[in-house]
Design brief:
CATH architecture of the largest domain: 3-Layer(aba) Sandwich
Number of helices: 10
Distance between the termini: 42 Å
Order of helices and strands: EHEHEHEHEHEHEEHHHH
Strand content: 15-25%
Shape: elongated
CATH topology of the largest domain: Rossmann fold
Oligomer: single chain
Strand order of the largest sheet: 2-1-3-4-5-6
Helix content: 40-55%
CATH superfamily of the largest domain: Response regulator
Largest sheet: 6 strands, parallel
Radius of gyration: 18 Å
Length: about 220
């Protein structure tokens, strides 16, 4: 592609957004636009992009909702998630959503720029801390927790769904309705999940979910 690459930076942190915009523009390789999470869809409608750098801290439900918006508005866009730290459940969710990269804010700007260039070229780019949770099969990246991973990283997909919904304040009955399961099945998932996590109180479950970036703090 000739000329600067159209790039979107999505974050609700003004300083981070303005800093990344300035650095991207200084390279001369990007035509960067910054937006908040709430205005991201409008920004994409105004101008499709090739790359979206998305701040994970601004994304509810592991960022899956906004990822779908970006993929719907700019189907060819490559997405790179920028997180405060590697959170295994969030990493699993965004990998499932087929993002192209996941880096933490501990990365240098040169590392981030290199990651963007790799995904623009059609590859993927994950920071070293994230790579230990990932395997590549026929060119597709999949999440796989390591043997020494925290218990939360070893929850099954269904247990993760139940955790997310319970931590968001839903009852077992409401979880069952949302997941099209029986209340007893949801309760069984809840029991196994809380046993794996060695958690016995819903309040502790909520605190864990917030610290892992699974649900937002209101």
């Amino acid at each position: 592609m000739h000329g600067p690459l159209p790039l979107l930076i999505v974050t609700d942190q003004t300083l981070l957004r303005e800093g990344l915009l300035s650095l991207m523009e200084l390279t001369g390789r990007f035509r960067a636009v910054g937006t908040s999470t709430a205005d991201a869809a409008d920004a994409l409608r105004a101008r499709p992009v090739k790359v979206a750098v998305v701040d994970a801290s601004a994304l509810p439900n592991h960022g899956r909702d906004l990822i779908r918006v970006i993929q719907g508005q700019s189907p060819d866009a490559r997405i790179l998630i920028l997180d405060d730290m590697v959170r295994p459940l969030r990493l699993a969710a965004v990998v499932k959503a087929r993002v192209s990269g996941y880096w933490t804010k501990q990365a240098s700007f040169e590392e981030l720029r290199g990651a963007i260039q790799r995904i623009v070229a059609g590859g993927s780019s994950f920071c070293p801390e994230a790579q230990r949770y990932l395997i590549s099969n026929n060119g597709r990246v999949r999440f796989r927790p390591t043997a020494d991973a925290k218990p939360i990283a070893r929850l099954s997909p269904r247990e993760t769904q139940v955790l997310t919904l319970l931590a968001a304040g839903l009852s077992v009955q409401q979880c069952a309705d949302r997941l099209a399961l029986s209340p007893s099945t949801v309760d069984n998932h809840k029991t196994r999940m809380m046993k794996k996590l060695d958690i016995h109180k819903t309040a502790d479950l909520v605190r864990l979910a917030v610290s892992e970036g699974i649900v937002d703090v209101d």
